Amino acid sequence: MSMQKIPADWRNCATCSHWCGRKMPDMLCKFVEFDNNERARCAGGGFNNGQMPGTGTCPKWERQYK
Ligand code: SF4
C-alpha cells in the first residue's frame, strides 16, 4: 500500500466520479487520498471497464467532490 493525497480538482482517476477505487476525501472534500498501487474499474468514462490507477487520467474526467 502506498497512500497518496491530491487536490480534489486534479484531473485524475482518483478524483473522478467514474473511478471505482477506494477514495478517502478529507472532511472538506478539498483533498482525496488513495492507494497508489490500486487498480480499479473506470465505469462509463474514457477507459470504460479498464483497470485504472488513481493517477490515471482522460478527457472524460468528471469531478466527484465539490
Ligand atoms: S479513465 Fe477518465 S473517466 Fe475513467 S476514471 Fe479515469 S479520469 Fe475518470
Please describe what this structure looks like:
With 66 residues, the protein is mostly beta strands. It has one domain. It has strands at residues 3-7, 24-25, 31-35, 39-41, 51-53. The strands form 2 sheets. It has a 3-stranded antiparallel beta sheet with strand order 1-3-2, with no helix packed on it. It has a two-stranded antiparallel ribbon with strand order 4-5. β2 (24-25) and β3 form a beta hairpin. The protein is globular, with a radius of gyration of 10 Å. The mean pLDDT is 97. Iron/sulfur cluster binds at residues 13, 16, 18-19, 42, 45-47, 52, 56-58, 60-61.
Structural class given helices, strands, pairing?
mainly beta
| N/C terminus separation | 27 Å
What's the average pLDDT?
97
- Total strands: 5
- Which stretches of 5+ consecutive residues score pLDDT under 50? none
- Strand neighbour order, sheet with most strands: 1-3-2
Helix coverage percent? under 10%
The gross shape turns out to be globular
Bound compounds, each kind once, are: iron/sulfur cluster
Pattern of helices and strands: EEEEE
**Overall domain count:** 1
Sheet of most strands: 3 strands, antiparallel
Q: Strand-residue fraction?
A: 25-35%
Q: C-alpha Rg, in Å? A: 10 Å
Short characterization:
With 66 residues, the chain is an all-beta fold.
Helix and strand arrangement:
Elements: E1 3-7, E2 24-25, E3 31-35, E4 39-41, E5 51-53
